[in-house]
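User: I'm writing a short report section on ligand binding and want a predicted complex to refer to. Could you take this sequence and pyridoxal-5'-phosphate and write out the structure as tokens? A short remark afterwards would be nice.
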Amino acid sequence: MNEIDWEAWRAEFPGLQKSTYLNTVSLGQLSRRSRSAVNRFLDLWTERGASAWYSYWLAEVDGLRREFARLIGASPDEVAIMPNISSALAAVSSALDFTQRSGVVCCELDFPTLIYHFLAKAPQGVQTHIASSPDHIQVPLEAFEAAVDERTALVATSRVYFTSGYIQDVRTLAGIAHGCGALCLVDDYQGTGQVPIDVKRTGVDILVTGGLKWLIGGPGVAYMYVRRELASSLAPTVAGWFGHRRQFDFDPHNLEFRDDAQRFEAGTPATAAVYAAKAGLEIINEIGPETLRRRTAALNQDLIQRLREHGCRLRIPSDPERHAGITILEMDDPARAVRLLADCRIIVDKRPGAVRISPYFYNTFEENGIILRALDEILK
Ligand SMILES: Cc1ncc(COP(=O)(O)O)c(C=O)c1O
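Assistant: Sure. The structure tokens for the complex follow:
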């Protein structure tokens, strides 16, 4: 294996010189490549005007689709480019029939937007079961197994839980869903990029993920994978011209969906965001998800060891193989800790009862030392 020059990659992210940035769980750093890609977009806007759409911008969206498909082992025709996860969920679930099967199974460690999406459908008869977590770190597969039955339409949960970093076994979960005739949807916002995934191997039907954290692409772009056979069988009831088979015919009388996952796309994409996102994804694919995982896991295990030596209370999985790059430090007053760390130019974030620290490939082992020394002072 070739040695990776991590210092060179670090230099690609100028923001890392301004602070000890350990907060990719909230927002990945801006690369020089994304900045110059957005500048390229702006130049095209100035120089070409509307013709930029046909000569460049639509091709850039397709390039982004290909780049994402490559990362997750899908085919580009199985990928829809969406503005955020909430819109992706709205588009795909508008095509699901909840009249025969009304059940959706989520869990209490899922990011709320996923659960809210289905709770909002209660007036239409959708029943959302929220599986419990005994330790606030993980949800046993048995809890899903117990909740899924022949009334379940969908198992919808995360691969990496945002408040514990636990990596759920979504392959087994997809098996549990399919065993009862249900579909499996995975929210992979905290997984894609930092933990490798091959969607075909996992067997999940739908995967949604966003670009602004571990895919270092900034806000404005989310991705949705829909298994090919499923995509072509689903007719969304949220629609727009980008999902039409002959978009530029402008036929007001007939709505004919595309055959592929693009049928879930509705309106004009945020093109500046597409340029930033594609440059970020190129970096992720260039380094490669396996290498990223090794590097991030090593940084994280080093951090955990140091935190343990300082007697910190951690809320993390016991098995490092099941732990992604999010380390949760339990604290009585996390807001104060985040504020005091920020005063020392150390950036982390908080969730109820905890501080989240999330080193990524561009961070260093020295930075783990920096935050530990600052925490020492704060904990005093
Ligand atoms: C696991 C997870 N899902 C979803 C989201 C956000 O969803 P949306 O793109 O709708 O804002 C986040 C954001 O923090 C997240 O961590």
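A remark for your report: The longest strand covers residues 152-158. DSSP finds 13 helices and twelve strands in the chain.
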